[in-house]
Amino acid sequence: MSRPGLSRRRFLAAATSSAAPLILPAWSRGAAPSQRLRLACIGVGGRGGKNMAEMASDPAVEIALLCDVNAQNLDRAQQMHPGAKTFRDFRELYASNLDDIDGVVVSTTEHTHAFATMPALLRKKPVYCEKPLTYNVAEARRITQAAAEAGVATQMGTQIHGMPNYRRVVELVQSGAIGPVKEVHVCVSRAWGLQSKEESEANKDRVFVTQRPTEAQEPPPFLDWDLWLGPAPARPYNDVYFPGPKWYRWWDFGNGTMSDLGSHWNDLPFWALNLDAPLSIEASGPEPDPEIAPATMSAKYTYGPRGDRPGLTLTWHQGNTKPEVWKDDPVISKWDSGVLFIGEKGMLLSDYGKHLLLPEAEFKDFTPPAPFIADSPGHHQEWLRAIREGTPTGSPFSYAGPLTEANHLGNVAFRSGTRLEWDAARMTCPNHPAADRFLARTPRQGWSLEG
């Protein structure tokens, strides 16, 4: 992995394609696509319930195992799938017989994603895991490696990746419509997290104000709080953490907007520009809080040349911060959130569902390239098809892992309060070793990433 000219992504792709060939269920090799799949779903409320419903909408899918620390979620899921066996603790699910299970869908809270995913990979079971793939950089690296070793179908739950608009934007960038790109700005207006009084007033119509616990509370009777905490440090229950999305603002359980929406918004430049590990990261914003992620922050990534493409900077702007080009341009300033590619021949602005070439007058007669990225059958269906037929997915862990690492590094730089140089091969910050403490953490007793 440290050999010059061999990126981590290329290494893992090579491992997946050669050293670890895709392993499929015995019946699927040469079987018809309608062959039945039996799935285990870990986390079945909220986003997990939607993922389960998407998988179950395929008539050849059977939801066979259900797991959730919330008994209400589990009861509702079992009513929809009465033949499924239920568990509260995914460790017990993995201790059961999984010989006839063809895939695992993980939709737990962010801080348990890796712990619910790793046992499936160690058993060579295909995995669909919600974004962000992991809670920290070290987990992302280990999950990426484990997926390459397992050689099974994987997909991170970034549903926007499968939509047509992102594909057309990638085609425009890669075909050279705006020339070589040396600067990208990603602007996300969501301001969930620790806010100043001014931010709270400005955003009170679209945010949840984060409060600190004043006293311990009894958890609701349907929630196993100890299991919900999982590998995170023990702390008394309080309704400032639960239900979601409250938890994702707290450093012990999530990483704020950066890791959550970065999975969607940074996905577009990561894909279009073939990005991998940055050379350096520097962040700005309010004084870091030891417990709560910020509402407003920015993070600037520096990338070196990739093949014949020049080096570039990618800047993440979150909450109430935007670059000058965004504020000054009369067209761009109307966009609340989006990704702005700045090339030598023009600019390309995109959000989830639409895109625009700028200046508009200069591109009014522009003919876009013929599509060369096939449309997706659907993000969930991609993964199911990959299990059955061995076809690729759009966001496999070989891609989603490095993307998740990069997103987490923005928070590492923010919490460190200094510009960081990044040694991806050694997974360390050589100019500021103190930042390494934000790359990993020791799980609570009773929890192990290695199953």
| Shape verdict | globular
Mean pLDDT: 90
Strand content: 15-25%
Main sheet characteristics: 8 strands, mixed
- Topology order in helix (H) and strand (E) letters: HEHEHEHEHEHEHEHHHHEEEHEEEHHE
Number of distinct beta strands: 14
Unreliable sequence segments:
1-31
* Number of helical elements: 14
Q: Report how far apart the termini are.
A: 25 Å
* Residue share in helix: 25-40%
Rg is: 22 Å
Output the strand order for the largest sheet.
13-12-11-7-10-9-8-14
Structural class call reads alpha/beta
Explain how this protein is built.
The model is unreliable at 1-31 (pLDDT under 50). The longest helix is centred in the last third of the chain and has 20 residues, at 397-416. The chain is built from 14 helices and 14 strands. The chain is of the alpha/beta class and 451 residues long. Helix 5 (113-122) packs parallel to helix 6 (137-150) and helix 6 packs antiparallel against helix 14 (397-416). The strands form two sheets. It has an eight-stranded mixed beta sheet with strand order 13-12-11-7-10-9-8-14, with helices on one face. It is globular, with a radius of gyration of 22 Å. The two termini are 25 Å apart. 30% of the residues lie in helices and 16% in strands.
